Amino acid sequence: MTGWLGSAYLWVKAAHIVFVIFWMAGLFLYPRYLIHHQQGLDDPAEPPRWEQREALMRRMILTPSLIVTWLLGLALAANIGLFDGGGGLGWLHAKLALVLLLSGYHGWMVGYSRRLARGVARLSLKRLRLLNEVPAVFVVLIVILAVVKPF
Ligand code: HEM
């Protein structure tokens, strides 16, 4: 499979980065919505608005970009021999582990917003604000692994 993308390789990589940017935009913004949603739980007019905004963002940005980023990323991974058992891809294994965790964070966010829609707020606003920073930390580490390839 190594090199199977041929001359499409750079196009696929460019598309991968574009969809990564879309996904990250959603991962940065969605938890902020959750804070506003939780703050508005006592006002009957607020929750339905946030539920609508969250559903729209999931449908238009978060879900499609998660799927396309993964598909293109896996195509690139096959292109550089991840599935051929070759060596020298420690950075990619580490990156995949971090991206899996980030996908888990994505799932947690969606679950939390479904609970907010039922009026359940499990975390304090302070903790929710702290969890907002998680994607930024992951992006720093993932981009270093993808670009510097330190091991
Ligand atoms: C969803 C699963 C993902 C997989 C399977 C994956 C896999 C890959 C692979 C195999 C490459 C090509 C490396 C090369 O040909 O040298 C690549 C490039 C890249 N990826 Fe991902 N990736 C994923 C998600 C992400 C995420 C979440 C980010 C950023 C937060 C990211 C950022 C990048 C960047 C910046 C490059 C370009 C690196 C370069 O050419 O210098 N990727 N990715």
Automatic annotation (TrEMBL):
Membrane topology: Multi-pass membrane protein
Cofactor binding description: Binds 1 heme b (iron(II)-protoporphyrin IX) group per subunit.
EC id: 1.3.99.-
Taxonomy, superkingdom: Bacteria
Binding site for heme: 16, 95
Pathway assignment: Porphyrin-containing compound metabolism; protoporphyrin-IX biosynthesis; protoporphyrin-IX from protoporphyrinogen-IX: step 1/1
Essential cofactor(s): heme b
Transmembrane annotation, as ranges: 6-30, 61-83, 89-109, 130-148
Cellular compartment(s): Cell membrane
Alphabetical list of Pfam families matching this protein: UPF0093
Keyword set includes Zinc: no
Keywords annotated in UniProt: Cell membrane, Heme, Iron, Membrane, Metal-binding, Oxidoreductase, Transmembrane, Transmembrane helix
Enzyme class: oxidoreductase
Magnesium listed as a keyword: no
Catalytic function, reaction form: protoporphyrinogen IX + 3 A = protoporphyrin IX + 3 AH2
Subunit and partners: Homodimer.
Family: Belongs to the HemJ family.
Function comment: Catalyzes the oxidation of protoporphyrinogen IX to protoporphyrin IX.
Protein name: Protoporphyrinogen IX oxidase
Organism (species): Stakelama flava
